[in-house]
Structures are given as C-alpha cells and as structure tokens.
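ingest -> validate -> predict -> emit
validate: passed (alphabet ok, no gaps, 104 aa)
predict: started
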Amino acid sequence: MNLKLDKKEKEIEDNISSYKQVDTAKRNLIEGIIDKANEKKSISLRLKNNDLEQLKRRADTEGLPYQTLLSSIIHKFVSDQLVDKRSILKSIEILKASEVSRFL
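emit:
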C-alpha cells in the first residue's frame, strides 16, 4: 500500500527530533480518549427495502458484510472523504475543455 503523508503529517515527520516522549500517565489518558472515540455503538436504522437490497448486493460484490460497507460510507461522509463520482467526472470534463481551448 502506497500511503502519502498530508501536509501536517509531513511537518511532524520533518520535526520529529523536536518532540518529547510523554509520561506514562499522559500516554494512558491519550490512548483512553482515542479508544473511546473508536468505540462502536449499535444503532437502529430504517431503510427502504430497495436501498437495503442494493446495499447488500454492492457489499457482496465488494466481498464484505453490508454493515461494514454502510459504516465505511458513513465514516467517509462525516470525514469529508466521500466523493461524488459525477462531480469528479464533471471537473475532469471542465479541465479537459479548458486545456483544449488553451491550444486553440
């Protein structure tokens, strides 16, 4: 897997020598906060039958449980990582058109 660092991560890596290790108590507190943030909670959700069936088919195609796929979709949405394919394609069309017009 080829992961790229974002700007903040790159800054941290570039300045790693200036950071100090935290004491055990503070580290435990931080890890506790992270663990609490990552806890899962069961919810009840009403979906249209057709939407649920399509979700199950898509999950089956992806090779994972539909609950996992739904959780992933929600996570991507709330963290602004979910992208609209049509918006991306429209942006590409606009960029291509502007490139073509630049050479005319």
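The chain is about 65% helix and 0% strand.
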